[in-house]
Amino acid sequence: MRITIDTDICIGSGQCALTAPGVFTQDDDGLSALLPGKEDGTDDPLAREAARACPVQAISLTEV
Q1: What dihedral do alpha carbons 12, 15, 17, 23 form, nearest 10°?
Q2: Class of residue 31 by CB neighbours under 10 A (exposed 0-12, middle 13-18, buried 19+)
Q3: Which ranges carry the 4Fe-4S ferredoxin-type domain (predicted)?
Q4: Closest Cα partner for 13 from 45, 60, 58, 61?
Q5: How far apart are CA 53 and CA 40, in angstroms?
Q6: Which helix (H) or strand (E) holds 51?
Q7: Residue 16 sits in which domain range?
C-alpha cells in the first residue's frame, strides 16, 4: 500500500510513529514523515493502525 501524509494538517502528535515505528518518524519540525525506503509503499500491517490513530486523519493509505 502507498502512504501519503498531508503535512498541511499534521499536528505532530506522534501517534503514527508510536504505532508503527518501522514506517513512520517525525521530521525536524515534529511533523510525521516516512522512514527512508517506505516512500514507495509498505506491507507493514501497523501502517493501517497508524492511519487510524492519527487524530486529524493526515495519513492516507492507497492499495497499489
Answers
A1: -110
A2: middle
A3: 1-29
A4: 58
A5: 21
A6: helix 46-53
A7: 2-62
Residue 33 has pLDDT above 90, yes or no: yes
- Global pTM value: 0.89
- Name the domain count of the chain: 1
Instruction: Count CB-CB contacts under 10 A for residue 16.
Output: 29
Give Cα 56 distance to the centre of its chain. Answer: 12
Q: What is the pLDDT of residue 34?
A: 95
Assess contact for 24 and 32: CB atoms under 8 A: yes
Q: What number of CA atoms fall less than 13 Å from residue 61's CA on the CB side? A: 17
CATH code of the domain containing 39: 3.30.70.20
